[in-house]
Amino acid sequence: MFSKQEAQQLRQEFWIAFGKSFPRKWLLYDTKIKDFSFKFNADSKKAEVSLDIEMKDELFRNAYYEKIWSLEVMLKEEIGPFEKDENYRLENGKIIARIWVSKENVSLFNKETWQEIFEFFVEKMTGFEKFFFEYEDYIKDV
């Protein structure tokens, strides 16, 4: 078990190592759609790449979610099997729509799994970005 400070240091080392290993600009928050972003996440048990639709207005959030869902087959071609939840509850209680892929049995706190996480991140985020750029005009037309 790590102290809070040690865990914070490892997190920082992890993200710096990822940036140095794969130095490119990711799409992430630069979708030009407010509260519509792609995210990397890693913790002690898994790694995830997600599309988070976080609009406070439920109608807009659902409209964007339905647009993505209407492209399910094309998304699956780019990222493989994925999970989805139209009413995903974040730890802070906020409800968002989320589409994500996970890699289990890896840990941000185990440097031996870092390369595996990095490669997963690159593969899946590249797929998400390719999908978004291909269907960007359709997705934005809400």
Structure report:
- The protein has 142 residues and is an alpha+beta fold.
- It has one domain.
- It is built from four helices and four strands, in the order αββααββα.
- The longest helix is centred in the C-terminal third of the chain and has 27 residues.
- The chain is globular, with a radius of gyration of 16 Å.
- The chain starts with a helix and ends with a helix.
- The mean pLDDT is 96.
Question: Largest sheet at a glance?
Answer: 4 strands, antiparallel
Structural class: alpha+beta
Q: How many domains is the backbone divided into?
A: 1
In whole angstroms, the N-to-C terminal distance is: 47 Å
Mean pLDDT: 96
Proportion of residues in extended strands: 15-25%
The residue fraction in helices comes out at: 40-55%
The sequence of SSEs as H and E is HEEHHEEH
Write the layout of secondary structure elements.
Layout: H1 4-21, E1 36-42, E2 46-53, H2 58-70, H3 72-79, E3 83-89, E4 95-104, H4 114-140
